[in-house]
Amino acid sequence: MVNIAGSVKKIHIKILYYLHIVMDVQHICLRCNKQFNKRWFLLRHFEKKKKCNANTLDVSYIDMINNYDTLYDAYKMCYIDNAVVCKLEEKIKCEYCNKKFAHNNNYYRHRKHYCKKNPKTQSVTIINNFNIQNNIQNNFTINNFGEENIDYLTDDLLLTFMGHPYNAIQKTSEEIHFNSCHPENNNIKPVATSSKHIDILVNGKWGTVVKKLVCDKMKRIAMFILNDVYLREGPHKMSEDCCKQFEQFRDDMKIKKDINKFIQDSLELLMKNSSVISI
User: Is 107 within the bounds of a domain?
Assistant: First the structure.
């Protein structure tokens, strides 16, 4: 008798091998994040009867065979550090002056504070390829996770958050991802706290990824934004006590696991409730 299951499996492995040759991607299992020096070792990994743990993307072997390119983009967005992502992707270009940047952080600072061609004061503003006129938004496109429009985050608002530093990251993330006045940034779907995975928008498509990785990226983005404002405005507009508290918070973030766990848990609750609940 012909082993149909075995034949189908061999066909899938051949397709995967073809994808790796044509697309020239790294030899990484997108489920468990294990890396291989050669394509053949990755193929042998896929031949195992017992599936590996879904440490990064909650996808099957068949999903990776059929949609490896799209899933690899999601993997890069949520798992690989920003510095590595910038090496793999094209440089980011300012939509106003065409200046190019290697890192998202530098692009954000330039666009918000230093770009002389950014028409912030005009009555008609073009933001992320859709028009807002007379403060009325007619239509919008949801931005990919990690590519949000944050021009509306004012320094005064962020300084207010820094007055309570241990909730500042959560409040900043809420303003970015769950602001009802800016639905173009609602790129995270609310999920139960018991779930280890969450749906986010990557490359214009919704995909399921590990929740912890999303929280880690939200924490890095929010902390960069807060630290940038603090270095520019904090010493001039915040009291000495508030400055000391925020600096102590930054130090605690680096060495204290309980502080990071508290922020992780708070961000997971934010994903469930779509807002920060204070008691």
Answer: no
Which pair of tokens denotes residue 153?
């985050």
HSE at residue 37, side-chain half, CA atoms within 13 A, is 0
The reply to whether 91 falls in a domain is no
- The continuous run of DSSP H or E covering 259 comes out as helix 257-273
Of residues 227, 214, 65, 61, the one with CA closest to residue 146 = 214
Give per-residue pLDDT as tens, 241-259: 999 999 999 999 888 899 9
Distance, CA of 252 to CA of 261 (rounded, Å): 12
How many domains are contained in the chain?
Answer: 2
Roughly how many angstroms between the first and final C-alpha of the chain, as a whole number?
Answer: 67
Q: Which pTM value belongs to this model?
A: 0.55
b/e burial code for range 132-155 (CB count within 10 A of at least 16 → b): beeeeeeebeebbbbebbbeebeb
